[in-house]
Design brief:
By secondary structure, this protein is an alpha+beta fold. The protein has one domain: Alpha-Beta Complex (Peptide Deformylase), CATH 3.90.45. It has 4 helices and 6 strands, in the order αββαβββαβα. Strands 1, 2, 3, 4, 5 and 6 form a 6-stranded antiparallel sheet that branches. The longest helix has 16 residues. The chain is globular and about 50 Å long. The protein starts with 26 loop residues before the first helix and ends in a 13-residue tail after the last helix. It binds nickel (II) ion. Nickel (II) ion binds next to helix 3.
Length: 195
């Protein structure tokens, strides 16, 4: 296994549509996923998509920390649940319902920054496992946000392109200071999990 170099915003690989993986059960796919997981943990991220490590394939990995999910379940009321490490090959995301929410996102390809992004509350995803089995799951709240963020990477979209209020886009350090000044006892919400 190895820690891979993460592409940063501006690199053309982050703007292109990634390709379907012809054989999700191929050994080289498993090797890439191992390295992606290691790279995600090393960089302290919550998710990673293959194009972020310069591989133009429709593969994403993520997990949701239980504490974080409870804080940020999308509607700001808490109560979300953690999700173990999940690997999706060739995912297809369907947005469910009309309800959306705005939450801060960060990205390992846009280091040090965060901004508010509107996402659907609920999604349904169909994907292939590394055993080439088809799985369908539904997600909501912060879990649904992570999936939508990572899935965007497969279509060459970075979260800053989805920010409606650019005045709230900035460096995590500065956003944290501003929030601490506004709400002294609140931890900076701007410490949004990196995807
Ligand atoms: Ni990202």
């Amino acid at each position: 296994m190895a820690i891979l170099k993460i592409a940063r915003m501006g690199h053309p690989i982050l703007r292109q549509r990634a390709s379907e993986v012809p054989d999700p059960s191929a050994p080289e796919v498993a090797r890439l996923v191992d390295a992606m997981v290691e790279t995600m943990h090393d960089a302290d991220g919550t998710g990673l998509a293959a194009p972020q490590v310069h591989m133009p394939w429709r593969i994403l990995v993520y997990f949701v920390d239980g504490g974080r999910a409870a804080e940020e379940d999308g509607d700001g009321e808490g109560g979300g649940e953690g999700v173990p490490l999940t690997v999706m090959v060739n995912p297809q995301v369907e947005l469910l319902g009309e309800e959306t929410n705005v939450g801060f996102e960060a990205c390992l390809s846009v280091p040090g920054m965060a901004g508010p992004v509107r996402r659907h509350d609920r999604v349904r995803v169909t994907y292939r496992t590394l055993e080439n089995e088809e799985v369908t799951l539904e997600a909501e709240g912060f879990h649904a946000r992570v999936i939508q963020h990572e899935y965007d990477h497969l279509d060459g979209i970075l979260y800053p392109a989805r920010i409606e209020d650019m005045s709230q886009f900035g460096f995590v350090e500065e956003l944290g200071k501003a929030q601490a000044a506004a709400e002294p006892e609140a931890e900076a919400q701007a410490g949004a999990a990196d995807g």
